[in-house]
Design brief:
Elements: H1 7-12, E1 39-40, E2 48-55, E3 61-71, E4 74-77, E5 90-91, E6 94-97, E7 107-116, E8 134-138, E9 148-149, E10 159-164, E11 184-190, E12 205-210, E13 225-229, E14 235-244, E15 256-260, H2 265-272
Parallel strand pairs: 9-14
Antiparallel strand pairs: 1-11, 2-3, 2-5, 2-6, 3-4, 4-8, 6-7, 7-8, 10-11, 10-13, 11-12, 12-15, 13-14, 14-15
């Protein structure tokens, strides 16, 4: 499977492209899934959220995108996770918040508003998407603790952690994917821009390197969080799973690429506090 041009295309577009499909749509590095070679979560992440998806053109295949609760009534995810293109995946209309299980537990809310960044652009050729973020408003607030968006992402080398319900195995499509029921985590580090392919990482996209060989987010992890330790050791959000950090092979064979959440705090706050 080509290094996941986009978790959404990959995990969301099985119809003509395989969920996590095209490097251009950059859905979470390679095929962002339950994280290939990750491990079961070791602590509670009350801000973790999952968005169920269905792919009609693939026999109603059940997929997923990740998200982060950043306000009692709003979650942040990838822009390509809400893309309703022909042959693509369709959101089921709900979000599950605060559970370490993909299909049970936590709090389920309906989605009553979808706001994708106005500058969202699907990458052309082997280039990643731009401004790949979206906000979903829940029909009612939840009691789970939101995660704070960091003031800035740590410097290259800073330890981080990736979270997701994406596939734990890399196959050529849905038949080869295995979505875990239990939330997966993977320790990583902030990479330098030069550690991803030229033109991939920049001020708005973070290059991410696994601290474990043969491991990285994959199909189904799109939209999920990359976090770092902040004051008093609390987790802070720095990234939103976008796609692969280069154009090579499977997800786990290279760097990952994350939308830099800290670069969008102005747009996020303006959207959340708008009168609409």
């Amino acid at each position: 499977m080509s290094r996941l041009k986009s978790v959404r295309r990959g995990v969301v577009r099985v119809a003509g492209v395989l969920l996590m499909g095209t490097l251009a749509t950059t859905a979470m590095t390679g095929s962002a899934g339950a994280i290939v070679n990750g491990k079961d979560s070791t602590e509670r992440y009350p801000f973790m959220a999952s968005i169920p998806l269905t792919v009609p053109s693939a026999g109603n295949f059940k997929a997923v995108c990740g998200a982060s609760l950043i306000h009692p009534q709003w979650v942040l995810t990838a822009g390509h996770c809400v893309e309703q293109g022909e042959g693509g995946a369709v959101m089921d209309g709900t979000v599950r918040v605060g559970s370490d299980r993909r299909t049970s537990g936590g709090t389920v809310r309906k989605i009553d508003r979808v706001v994708r960044h106005p500058g969202y652009e699907v990458g052309q050729g082997a280039k990643p998407n731009r401004n790949d973020v979206a906000l979903l408003r829940l029909d009612r607030p939840v009691a789970h603790q939101p995660i704070r968006i960091a003031e800035r992402a740590g410097r290259p080398g800073t330890p981080t952690r990736l979270l997701g319900f994406g596939t734990t195995t890399e196959g050529s499509g849905p038949d080869g994917w295995k979505f875990p029921e239990r939330l997966q985590q993977l320790d990583a580090r902030r990479g330098a821009e030069s550690e991803c392919a030229p033109g991939f990482a920049d001020r708005t996209r973070l290059c991410t390197i696994s601290r474990k060989a043969g491991a990285m987010a994959c199909s189904g992890d799109s939209g999920g969080p990359q976090v770092q330790r902040g004051d008093w050791g609390r987790w802070e959000l720095i990234g939103v799973t976008l796609g692969p950090g280069d154009g090579d092979g499977p997800c786990a064979n290279g760097p990952g690429l994350y939308t830099n959440a800290t670069a969008y705090t102005g747009w996020i706050h303006k959207t959340i506090h708008s009168k609409r």
